[in-house]
Amino acid sequence: MVNEIEWKLKLTPERYRVLREKGTERPFTGKLLHNRKKGVYLCAGCGQELFSSDSKFDSGSGWPSFYQALDDERIRTEIDPGFGMRRVEVLCSACGGHLGHLFDDGPFPTGLRYCVNSLSLEFSEKQ
Predict the structure, then answer these.
(1) Contact 64/118 with Cβ under 8 angstroms?
(2) Tens digit of each residue's pLDDT (9 = 90 or more) over 64-120
(3) Is residue 92 annotated as a catalytic residue, yes or no?
(4) Banded model confidence at residue 1, pLDDT cuts 50, 70, 90
(5) Beta carbons of 78 and 90 less than 8 angstroms apart
(6) What is the mean pLDDT of residues 29-46?
(7) Residue 85: its pLDDT value, please?
(8) Residue 21's closest CA among 2, 6, 8, 10?
(9) Considering only CA atoms, which of 91, 87, 110 is closest in space to residue 99?
């Protein structure tokens, strides 16, 4: 188990703010927002594979969006009552890193939208 001192040493300050302090990046600024390559999106904290490029879509929200996770076991959700709203927070099941939020306004076939910070992700391209 990694402690907070180790997280601070491992992550950039921006990634630490998002993954460990539940921050968010400004919309339309993330490096993976317009990524159209085929591959897998991994947790930037621990490397667990989270989403496939096959489920990525342009939601117009300003953050990378996916309609399903690779496997429900890779994602954990919690109610986030912050900012006077009741949202569903999405976390990496392996390291507990904050990824973003889950909404029910996504496309077919799931109707879900995992709205994820680019800073919480790494991308591994398929050859």
Answers:
(1) yes
(2) 999 999 999 999 999 887 767 778 999 999 999 999 999 999 999 999 999 999 999
(3) no
(4) low
(5) no
(6) 97
(7) 72
(8) 8
(9) 91
Give all domains of the chain, ordered by start, each with its CATH number: 4-125 (2.170.150.20)
In contact, 11 and 112? CB cutoff 8 Å: no
Residue 81, number of CB atoms within 10 A of its CB:
10
Cα-trace Rg, the chain? 14
Distance (Å, whole) CA 114 – CA 66: 5
C-alpha dist (Å) from residue 117 to 1, 3, 90? 23, 22, 10
pLDDT value for 83: 65
